Amino acid sequence: MKRKVISVEELITGDKVVYLSPGHAPGMVSTIGPKQNINIATFEQVMVVSYKPVRIIIVISENCDTYKNIIDGSSAAVGFPYPEYIQQAYDAGVKLNRELSELDYIKGLSTYESQNIESPSIDQCWINFECKLFKDVPAGDHNIVILDVLSVSVEPKIIKENGIVTRTNLPALYYTTNGNFFEPGKVSKVKLSENLKKFDNGD
For position 189, what pLDDT does the model report? Predict the structure, then answer.
């Protein structure tokens, strides 16, 4: 699906970027691993925290492949998935070997070329933030990884219909815990796909 690329300057001018981050929505993050493999993982705690400058945070464990990739210099594409890709969003939480790519194991998961970073953006997300590391902040058993947003690619109708002024009616999927997701008027329970259960340690 085609996305409209929005420059950071455009976002700042509108003062509306914070509304592109749905509250408590699972974020899918694409990074590049040590073998130039594409790593994709899903996290519960992802949100835009600043629009001047534009920054987004991920709350993440130091043991996570995504964290290691970012600290080692990888860029990150951070996206929010469409509700219909609930299975892919959940499966991307599996912990594979850091040198493997989730694209080879998760059915229906794909990427497209980002505009300003080497990490690809995720097709199953209606929005992708193209990011570089700003700061890593230890916060106990997890770290707060703060990312500078370089550009954003978003489904054009999101801008047309919402004007990026409200979180209502975004095609967002929300997560509670233990495979329980919800969207307006619907609650879903998801289990890990059979071919991934041997890796079931979480990401």
Answer: 76
